[in-house]
Write a structure and sequence with these properties.
It is a single chain. Helix content is about 25%, strand content about 40%. It has about 150 residues and is α+β, with helices and mostly antiparallel strands. It has a single domain (about 1-135), classed as Alpha-D-Glucose-1,6-Bisphosphate, Chain A, domain 4, CATH 3.30.530. It starts with a strand and ends in a 15-residue tail after the last helix.
């Protein structure tokens, strides 16, 4: 399983960045290869993506969500991934978004992409597009301020 850790400073308040990240159905606007995300309920998301020329679908489960702090998830099914995104206040108008992503590569093309650093560059570019998206707007497209407690 691969692990990617990336972060980016964003020139919006922490609550604005967090609120935007909770708008999962907006992810195709800044995440490469994400065709659609459908929020099934507070905890479940149906992902449709194109990875290395192959279309993949899976259900993501939000395992923990604390407003303005963190969102953690894991996938169900063949496409194994899990991670956490955390939000850190730098001052009243800036924050840092940190992403940790664990993923499984399932075929030769994905394993080659991992070895060449393609997956890590893609995640970094997604964060840069998120920064550009939210900074250009200056405000979130919506918000979900609910909390999901991690089950021990």
């Amino acid at each position: 399983m691969g692990l990617i850790e990336q972060s980016i400073e964003v020139d919006v308040p922490v609550h604005t960045a967090y609120n935007q990240w909770t708008q999962f159905e907006e992810f195709p606007k800044f995440m490469e290869g994400v065709e659609s995300i459908t929020q099934l309920d507070d905890k479940r998301l149906q992902w449709v993506v194109e990875i290395g020329g192959q279309r993949r679908e899976w259900t993501g489960i939000i395992t923990e969500q604390t407003p303005d702090q963190r969102i953690a998830w894991k996938s169900e099914g063949e496409t194994g991934n899990a991670g956490v995104v955390t939000f850190h206040r730098l001052d009243d108008s800036r924050c840092k978004v940190m992403l940790q992503l664990e993923y499984q590569t399932s075929d030769f093309a994905e394993k080659a992409g991992e070895m060449l650093g393609i997956i890590e560059r893609r995640v970094k570019a997604d964060l840069e597009r998120f920064k550009a998206f939210i900074e250009a707007r200056g405000r979130e497209t919506g918000a979900w301020r609910g909390e999901i407690k991690q089950v021990s």
